[in-house]
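Sequence and structure are no longer studied apart. To make this concrete, we show below a single chain and its fold as C-alpha cells.
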Amino acid sequence: MSHSDVVIVGGGIVGLSTALKLRQRYSDLRVTVIEAESDVGQHQSGHNSGVLHSGVYYEPGSQKAIYCRTGKEAMEAFCSEHSIPWDKCGKVVVATKEAETTRLDKIAERAELNGVQCERINSDQLRELEPAVAGIAALHVPETGIVNYGTVCRKLAELLRNQGTSIELEFQLSGIQSRTGGLHLQSKSDQQLQCGHLINCAGLQSDRVCKMAGVKTEMVVVPFRGEYYELAPSSETLCRNLIYPVPDPSFPFLGVHFTRMIDGGVECGPNAVLALARNGYRWRDISLRDLSDTLRFKGFRKLAAKHWRMGLGEIHRSVSKQAFVTALQKLIPQIRPDDLILGRAGVRAQTVTPDGNLVDDFLFETSERAIHVLNAPSPAATASFAIADHIVDTFVARAT
C-alpha cells in the first residue's frame, strides 16, 4: 500500500493545478492525484466552451470575480510558456431589445469594478465586429479569450509526472477512513492508499467525497447538461469570435451563445437541462442512484418549482432543433437549421442549497485532514490557478 503526504481527488483542471502549485511550493512533498476515468480532464474540464473569461458578470469582491482576474492572467502565462494555443479574440455581449440596455449598463458597471477593460458600442460598431449579429447595443470585451482546457490538463499531467507526482487513473474512490496519523482511501476495485491529507476536487462527485470524509453537508451537487450545436463549415463566417446575450436575471443560466473554438469551428449553445446521471451526456444516460438523489433533495424540488417554465423551454430546445435555432436567431437572425450540426455536450456540477438556491460563488469546506472544493462552476477553468493558490494557502495554514 502506497503512502502520500497529500492525495488530490479529481484529475480535472482544478485538481491538477492544485497538484502543480503544491509541488512548486514543496518540491519534496509526496503528492498523488486519483482520477476515476482512464485519462485526465474527462468531464467538466474537457467538455466546456474553452473560454478564457474576463470577469464581466461576477459580483465585485466575490471569489469568482477576484480569482477569474488573477487566474486568467496566470492561465495565459502558462499557455504561452508551454506553447499551448490560445487567442485573446474578444467578445460582444449583445442587447437585442430596449429592455436589455439597462442590464447591459449594469454589466458594464460590474466590469469596471472588476477591472475588466470593455466598451459600450452602438449597433453600427457592433456590425463592424460581427456583421451578422442583430443588436441595438453591445458591450465589447476585447480581453476575453479562447483555449482548449483539455490540452491544458494534458500538459499539467505531463509536468506533474515529470516532477514525480503519481497520477492514479481508474481509481474510483469508494471509502475514506480516519486512521492514526492520516486517512485510508479505498477504491471500488480494492485499490488502497494512505495519506496525511486529502484535497477534494472531485467536481460532479465532490459532495459525495465530502460526506465520505465525515462532513455533514446539506448541499447537493445537481448535474445540468449543456448541449451544443456547431456551425456547418460553410456557415462559420456568421460568427467571427464570441457572441453572448445579455443574461436574463430571472434565469440562473446564461443562455445560448456563439463561441469560436481555438481548434477550429464555432459552437452554438448551450441549453441547460437536468442530466439524468452525473455523467449523463445524453438523455439515455440514466443513473437510478444519481436521479434518485436529485429528486429526493428538497433543494432541487424548490429550484424546479421556481423555474419550471424556463426548464420546460430548455427541454424543448433539447428535443427540437427548430426551437434551438429560434433561440439562436435572437442574436443571428439568418441562422437556419441547415447551418447547424449536432455537437457535443457537457455536464455542469452545480451545488444547490436546501432552500433551492444555486450556490453562486466558489465554495470551499474543510474537515479534519481534508479540504473540499464543493462548488466550482464557470469560470473555474479560467480561474484554476488562482483557486489552486487558495487551496494551497488553506493547506499551509492548517498544516502549520
The chain has three domains: 2-46+150-219+360-399, 91-142, 220-356.
